[in-house]
Amino acid sequence: MKSLNELFSLKGHVGLVTGASSGLGVECAHALALAGADVAIAARRGDRLERFAADLTEGYGVKALGVQTDITSDSDLDRLMDTVQRQLGLVDILVNNAGVSPTGRAEALPRATWDAALATNLTAPMMLAQRVARRLIEARKPGRIINMISIYGVVASSIYRLSAYTASKAGLANLTRQLAIEWAPHEILVNAIAPGWIPTEATEAGMAKPQNRERMEKATPLGRLGKPQEIRGAVIYLASAASSYVTGTILSIDGGYVAW
Q1: In terms of Cα–Cα distance, which of 223, 227, 231 is closest to 252?
Q2: Which residue among the candidates 60, 152, 160, 165 is catalytic per the annotation?
Q3: Cα separations (Å) of 24 from 69, 164, 175, 180?
């Protein structure tokens, strides 16, 4: 690599981001487009995707495509992959970002709630990673898979009751390591990002409560909550040539939360 641009540029690549109608999924899509990748965005809310795809194209000059998708549906995942490959090309960067975080006391958590969390947070990322990897292996192309876990895929929560969420994210963390080992011979690098307390559309109400915010900030060495945009650098790094010798790793973007 002879220039900074070569090290971090994603021009000529096709990225796919799930859960990209709000929150950190939006930031992940911005990151890929900023680095020059064409980007497909998937989520249940199709109206938001259409507007966001237009914004990405206008803002970065890349191709962008929104595909309304239920990631827990195998048929939707097949349609997603076919649509993206037909319109943008072979996906070689996958960001498994979509997730749910139900709360409730562990002793009273309904089976349906547990099953839904695992279906979205663990099973769906595996099914989509499978589909991306199979096509890359068949085409003999390298690739990148980035799984969005959480600090609560590494440690437990004392603020919220999150048994289904923490279990599913911990599972995704170790799945990341396993896929990294299995797909290393094909040059498909698999890593995870573990965000800390970063307010988004889905979480800002709880984080805005003074008692919660104070506990979060005190537990974070940097003494503050994160900003959504602070996830972008990690996404670009793990998707680009800069991380060519990095696989099976969890990168925490948490202000030092899990360091003590």
Answers
A1: 231
A2: 165
A3: 17, 20, 21, 23
For this structure, is 165 an active site residue? yes
Residue 156 structure tokens: 């437990």
67: phi then psi, degrees, rounded to nearest 5: -130, 110
Buried/exposed 15-40: b ≥16 CB within 10 Å, e otherwise: bbbbbbbebbbbbbbbbbbbbbbbbb
User: What is the rounded distance in angstroms from the CA atom of residue 169 to the CA atom of residue 173?
Assistant: 6
Residue 186 per-residue DSSP state: G
**Residue 166: both structure tokens together:** 């923490």
Burial 129-161 (b: 16+ CB within 10 A, else e): bebbbebbeeeeeebbbbbbbbbbbbeeeeeeb
Residuewise pLDDT in 10s, the chain (260 residues): 679 999 999 999 999 999 999 999 999 999 999 999 999 999 998 889 999 999 999 999 999 999 999 999 999 999 999 999 999 999 999 999 999 999 999 999 999 999 999 999 999 999 999 999 999 999 999 999 999 999 999 999 988 999 999 999 999 999 999 999 999 999 999 999 999 999 988 777 778 888 999 999 999 999 999 999 999 999 999 999 999 999 999 999 999 999 98
Residue 194's H or E segment, with its range, is strand 188-195
pTM tops 0.70, yes or no: yes
Residue 17 CA to residue 42 CA, distance in Å, equals 6
